[in-house]
Amino acid sequence: MRVNEYVEREPDPSGSLRTFGAVVQALREHAGLSRVEFAQRVRFSKHTVASVELGRRMPDDSFVERGEEATGNTGALRKSSRHLARGEVGLAAWFRRWALLERDAVSLCTYECRVIPGLLQSEDYARAVFEGSLPVAPDGQLEDFMARRMGRQRMLFERPATPFSFIVEEHVFRRRFGGAEQMRESLDHVLKLTAPRNVTLQIVPLEAGLHTCLDGPLQLLETPQGQRLAYSEGQQNGRLISDVKEVGLLYQRYDTLRSQALNTKDSRGLLERLRGEL
Q: What is the pTM of this model?
């Protein structure tokens, strides 16, 4: 797979989803139905109907068939649905290409200084992150996000020969959300997912001071063909990097930070102590 050196943010809905959504809206309005009325006929929530019409959600077969019945059986929805491209529902548009690369990567490294990495988040933690983001996601879209986030975590168990490395700042695990029980469950989840031999977690302690990765979160991977790639993310955008020199520099930074972080045994010990303080 050829990867461009720099990938700007893509349009959020795919072209085919957006077009299908416009067809649904046009037929619904032509039939004289409000979104609420149409939602009742197709037996989906009005939020799901809105997500489909805006091109943010992939309709399933029952939505298409009931939508046909509700709009006069013109055949337009059935025909247009054949050309839908699913993409990666539930993932930010700028992250989708990286998510595809993750599936086949022979190694994956993650540095995080903002939140617990998505691959290690408990369900309550992930939901709190999504619910706290702006703009507010409709209920149906939120469930898509949750399903994708939790589904990605299966990689850690389904690929026991693939090394996964995580380096996370200590303050990330100290940041409060929900109640004490949710905090304990979150730490237990991290401990469980990082227990397999192919998964390593190192924590950068508060007293470590300044270090080489202060520019922000970073992910690194190697493809089956031996190509090394990097990904960095900021507010409302992400950058996929393939330039050999730049990726090499990012690997050097990650390796340097790895030597400065706590080893895996001490990192697990720190998490267990934090759990005991709750």
A: 0.67
